[in-house]
Amino acid sequence: MSHRILVVDDNALNLDLVGKILGLEGYEVITAESGDEALQKVGAFQPDMAILDVMMPDMDGFELCRRLRRLPECAGIPVIMLTASSSESDKIEAQNAGANDLLGKPFSMDTLRAHIHAFLK
What we know:
By secondary structure, the protein is of the alpha/beta class. The protein has a five-stranded parallel sheet with strand order 2-1-3-4-5, sandwiched between helices. The model has no long low-confidence stretch (mean pLDDT 94). Helix 2 runs parallel beside helix 3. Strand 4 (79-83), helix 4 (88-97) and strand 5 form a beta-alpha-beta unit. The chain has helices at residues 12-24, 35-45, 61-69, 88-97, 109-120; strands spanning 4-8, 28-32, 49-53, 79-83, 101-104. It has one domain: Response regulator (Rossmann fold, 3-Layer(aba) Sandwich), CATH 3.40.50.2300.
């Protein structure tokens, strides 16, 4: 059985690229362009991991991570956050929100794959 990964990013190009590459890697991927859309999809999808963009309108990735952590189906899954600003305060906020990892943008797909494999091995 393949691992299921939820990918959330308000940038459709990033979302499509990451989703397609992870799909080619054999993961079952579901995408969402907002935190609200992700929360609507997560119950039926029950992901094994979430990859969240930090900078999104309406609900940022930190808040989405906090909300996912309160859901029984997502309380223990690994969460990787992606950010264009990898400041010390972002690292602290990601950790406080319950994220397992924070990757700075731009990142290589090899780096993302390595982080995913480390959590889902």
